[in-house]
Design brief:
Layout: H1 2-15, H2 19-29, H3 37-49, H4 55-71, H5 76-94, H6 101-118, H7 122-132, H8 138-150, H9 157-167, H10 176-189, E1 206-212, H11 222-230, E2 236-242, H12 251-258, E3 262-265, H13 271-281, E4 285-288, E5 307-310, E6 325-328, E7 344-347, H14 369-372, E8 375-379, H15 388-400, E9 404-409, H16 416-425, E10 432-435, H17 441-446, E11 453-455, H18 464-471, E12 476-479, H19 488-495, E13 502-503, H20 506-518, H21 520-533, H22 542-559
Parallel strand pairs: 1-2, 1-4, 2-3, 4-5, 5-6, 6-7, 8-9, 8-11, 9-10, 11-12, 12-13
Length: 561
């Protein structure tokens, strides 16, 4: 009874937000033998709710929540401890910390224990999905997301849907037909914004809008956008709708501003407000250049304007009611595959985008292996694009190529420990070097000077990193895919006159790398060709691309009914 009164007093303190007093009372009046799961829950909550908390407090609360669950795995208090433990782990990951494979396996073990007792608990499943988003266990990640979808999760419903379809880009066993069927279901779960019928007005120019969250120098999409506005078509009045925080505006943002007619900040508007704002301006063509996870794609489920287009940010169908067109090229979506995309396809001549190049002088970089005696492979793609299958193939390459090493670099480090454990299991960890993100772009680019040959990820291929490598005259081995997203590397290489670098399957991928490693003269000739010719190709000819782009949009708008 006395202990029960103490707990009730602690609950009162918690409700009154007296977090410091809670910590003092528990640490003073409860010894380890008398402490129970409810006390541990209150202690952990006091640490994370305190306005003065720091990251050490988060880590300490994690231990409290974990111990609370272990003490009582079958009660609602134990479940609550586990929920907060999972949310805390997710926050730990947001702080760029990593989980070891053992830690992750323990979390999965706790999850399945709780699932067997409590069946489906939305908060727990959602918290598990947040942890999984930072992991490379694709199948488990997708299973959790699917259950949230099947149970019609109320938390971040749109994000859950988009994460599910996004993560299927990492699988070979999800066909393009699967993408289409699932994307068709998305529209049924998204709201439709009630808007009046579009009024037709005679205008001197077609008002075209681009929605983006990324128009600043720290995001690669700018390298594919800024020259488009430099070589603008006078038939269009160009509007940018930026979800970027105004405080992130930089030199790239200012360049884009100078070359468009209007630049609108929209981060303070919800989707309904944005839709009405677009209508008030009288936008005729709206192009979404955001990634599918950026949170604005759902407005395309409503008829905002005459013509609505998806391009650049997400390279697959989004399947919404009024997403009319998807911009691609004939290397990405074959003519016979057009029906596997909800949108009609705008085929651009050559390539679906074009890179504006880098503000760094190009100099011919000789093969680093000629001096080092080590054949250095590299992949600077985001770790989220690397699956366990990719690690296995890269490990086989390292075993086959004598005196070889692999340099990996990403803007995030969520999966680094997991990758290390997988490479270690294959016996090649000593051949792998992990580089952390560099805020100095020149340092990042100069790292390519240490690379003999780059390895593309698969089936989720790179785009920006492939263009960077070619700019620095480093060849990239990419694998052909089965849909838009998995063929981006292939399209870039074909448009760079480097079709010989495209592998048809995993065996071919390995064989091409080994062949170059065993014939440095052939590799050197390829590097010289890239240095001499690549800037003359579609991949970097932004003026030609812009002319083609604007003409295609104008023709589509004119003919669209």
């Amino acid at each position: 009874m006395k202990n029960e009164k103490k707990i009730n007093d602690l609950i009162t303190l918690l409700n009154n937000k007296q977090y410091g007093k809670i910590i003092f009372e528990i640490e003073s009046n409860f010894d380890d033998k008398k402490i129970n799961s409810q006390v541990l829950l209150i202690l952990g909550l006091a640490k994370i709710k305190s306005p003065d908390r720091n990251f050490d407090d988060v880590l300490s609360s994690l231990q409290n929540f974990k111990e609370g669950y272990i003490l009582d795995k079958t009660s609602k208090i134990g479940l609550e401890c586990l929920r907060y433990y999972f949310y805390g782990v997710s926050e730990k990951l947001e702080q760029k910390k990593t989980l070891s494979l053992d830690e992750y396996e323990e979390i999965k073990k706790f999850f399945f224990e709780a699932k067997s007792v409590f069946k489906y608990d939305e908060k727990l499943f959602y918290a598990m999905s947040l942890i999984n988003f930072k992991s490379t266990n694709v199948d488990f990640r997708l299973n959790v997301l699917k259950e949230l979808i099947d149970k019609d999760c109320s938390r971040e419903k749109n994000l859950i849907l988009y994460e599910y379809i996004y993560n299927n880009n990492l699988r070979y066993n999800w066909s393009q037909n699967d993408f289409l069927n699932f994307s068709n279901k998305i529209k049924e779960k998204l709201p439709i914004i009630d808007l009046p019928k579009i009024k037709e007005f005679k205008k001197k120019k077609i008002k075209i809008g681009f929605i983006s969250s990324d128009l600043a120098s720290d995001h690669p999409v700018t390298y594919f956008m800024k020259d488009l506005f430099c070589y603008r078509n006078e038939n269009f009045e160009i509007h940018i709708f930026s979800d970027l925080d105004v405080n992130r505006e930089d030199n790239i943002t200012k360049i884009i501003k100078r070359n468009v007619d209007y630049f609108h900040y929209i981060s303070n508007k919800n989707n309904i407000e944005l839709a009405r704002f677009l209508r008030s301006i009288g936008i005729d063509v709206l192009i979404d250049i955001n990634d599918i996870l950026k949170g604005r794609v759902e407005i395309f489920n409503s008829r905002i304007c005459k013509l609505q287009i998806s391009w650049l940010g997400y390279n697959n169908t989004i399947g919404l009611n009024h997403s009319d067109y998807l911009i691609a090229d004939k290397n990405l979506i074959l003519e016979k595959e057009k029906d596997l995309y909800k949108e009609k396809i705008i085929y651009l001549d050559g390539i679906w985008n074009s890179h504006s190049g880098l503000n760094i002088e190009r100099k011919y970089n000789q093969l680093p292996s000629l001096n080092s005696g080590t054949f250095t492979l590299g992949s600077f793609n985001n770790y989220s694009k690397i699956s366990d299958e990719t690690i296995l193939v890269w490990s086989k390459i390292l075993k086959k190529v004598k005196n070889s090493k692999l340099i990996l670099k990403s803007s995030v480090s969520y999966s680094e420990i997991h990758f290390k454990e997988l490479f270690d299991k294959e016996g090649v960890l000593n051949n792998v070097t992990f580089k952390s993100r560099s805020n100095n772009f020149e340092q990042h680019i100069n790292l390519y000077k240490d690379i003999d040959l780059c390895l593309d990820t698969f089936p989720y291929t790179g785009v920006t990193t492939t263009c960077e490598a070619l700019w620095m005259n480093v060849p990239v081995i990419s694998m052909t895919g089965f849909n838009f997203n998995s063929r981006c590397g292939e399209s870039i290489l074909i448009n760079s006159n480097l079709k010989n670098l495209v592998a048809k399957n995993k065996d071919s991928y390995i064989s091409k790398v080994v062949s170059f490693a065993n014939d440095l003269n052939k590799l050197e000739q390829t590097r010289k060709f890239i240095f001499d010719q690549v800037l003359k190709t579609n991949t970097f000819n932004t003026k030609k691309f812009a002319v083609n782009f604007w003409k295609s949009i104008l023709d589509t708008y004119t003919n669209h009914k």
